[in-house]
Amino acid sequence: SRSLYSAPKLENQDYYLANGIPPLMTKETFKLAWVDYQQYLAKELTKRTQDTRFSSMTPFKIVVATALHADQAALFNFASLTHNNHFFFDSLVKTTEPLPAVFNAIEESFTNIEELKAHMSGIAEAMCGNGFVWLLQSPKKKLYVSATYNAGTPYGVEHAQDFDFNSPFSRSRLSNVAQRQRNLLDREDAIEGKPMPLLCINVWQHMYLNDYGFGGKAGYFQNWWNSIDWLKVEARL
Question: Whose CA is closest to 57, among 72, 45, 67, 43?
Fold first, then answer.
């Protein structure tokens, strides 16, 4: 038997539907960006996996299994966005301070937490399009920041879309990207060795345009930073 995909109910979803997620987003934006959009993604996943070997896989497993296959690009995109959008909303709560383990890990990889905040904010504001900005932990426990464009995934460079080729880049950077892709060609099903996302901000336009308008990403980022569930971040560390 196969399972039908559905949008999971968030812990505080009823409150969010009535009040939004103050100060981050209004109830109208929450309904559009979570309820309506996540239901749409789940419906597309159900339709596209019907009677296939992917039908019993989680969205994460589908991402890993399809990332290297051009003929599965549409399925990859829907699975990746399903996972990424849920990861973002599942990490939101009324603000709490970073816990000691997270704070120490951030200070070991960045000068201080303000540097991390400025770094993520700068990348988010510079993205002229849709995507996510991630705080990731490498297999060697180093924290770093990376962006994925559109439906890109943080779990593997084979389909990460973590580099905007419309921006200036060096030949050595391009060579490194190509080499990383070649190194992963025989590791399609490998989970070990992939980065661990700790946190992300969703910068798809429907997340902030209605509430903040064009040019309002800085305010959106600030309110997101004050709405992070640091308990979830620590659990992923």
Answer: 45
Residue 85 lies in a domain: yes
Alpha-carbon gap, residue 145 to 48, rounded angstroms: 32
Residue stretches of the chain with pLDDT short of 50:
1, 158-169, 174, 177, 181-191
Q: Return the structure tokens found at 68.
A: 């290297």
Assign residue 58 the CATH number of its domain. Answer: 3.55.40.20
Q: Is residue 79 a part of any domain in this protein?
A: yes
Residues 184-236: pLDDT tens digits?
434 433 445 678 999 999 999 999 999 999 999 999 999 999 999 999 999 99
Helix pair 73-89, 59-66: axis angle to 10 deg: 140
* 185-to-68, 77, 169 alpha-carbon distances in Å: 7, 19, 24
Measured in degrees and rounded to the nearest 5, phi and psi for residue 149 equal -95, 140
Residue where the block lists tokens 């661990």:
196
3-state secondary structure of 18: helix
Beginning with the edge strand found earlier in the chain, give each strand of the sheet holding 143-149 in spatial order.
143-149, 131-137, 196-202
Domain that holds residue 16: 12-164+192-236
Predicted confidence (pLDDT) per residue in 163-172, tens digit: 444 444 455 6
What SS3 class is residue 90? Answer: coil
**Tally of structural domains, the chain:** 1
Q: What is the pTM of this model?
A: 0.84
**DSSP code, position 166:** T
pLDDT of residue 56: 87
Burial group, residue 17, by CB count within 10 angstroms (0-12, 13-18, 19+)? middle
